[in-house]
Amino acid sequence: MADLNPGPRRRGRPRKASSSDARAAITAAASAEFAEKGYDKTSLRGIARRAQVDSALVHHYFESKAGLFAEVVKLPVRPDHIVRSALDVSDDRLGESLVHTVLSAWEHSNVKSIGVTILRSAVSDSAAGRLIRQFLLRDLKGAVARRIEDIGVDSAEADLRATLVLTQMAGALMFRHVLELEPLASMSVDDLTARLAPAVQGHLDGVGGSN
User: Fold this and answer.
1) What predicted TM-score, i.e. pTM, was given to this entire model?
2) Whether the Cβ atoms of residue 168 and residue 196 lie closer than 8 Å to each other
3) SUPFAM superfamilies from the entry (predicted)?
């Protein structure tokens, strides 16, 4: 475990550390930064300064702020990776891909267990809830919005469509796994995808909107 309270060091010079020490120091620093500043205002540079390591190490071990957040809250999967892989399809299959990929991920017991905790926290007014909401809005909704912009939609409209998609998906997960509302809770992933995908595709395409 890294020494998170080191003695005086020359200002601006990161300490040298073993790989395990560096990872532990970065994770501890990230946990403190997220708790103090929230997800939006936390930066990888700030985490590196707090951990007294070179900022390149943060990128090397964790790739991005989303990756570091997933490590801190002990997520068994990377939500940003799941969403990005789901978006890597043709425009007309985006809805089906998003719904099926996300629902399938939640079929794993470890994902469901932590996911339910996260959903419950996200709707609370706690510091953890605010942190999770910021992560969902910045990284997950942002990824969907950018994919919609790729179709040729302006940023404001893309943000609205992405918000509607996130609302649809979060509602489905909440009623299926947290409230366990039947028959939603017992439907197969394929059957539920067939029902939800057209609605999500409609949000992505802006069906019913002004554009």
Assistant:
1) 0.68
2) yes
3) Homeodomain-like, Tetracyclin repressor-like, C-terminal domain
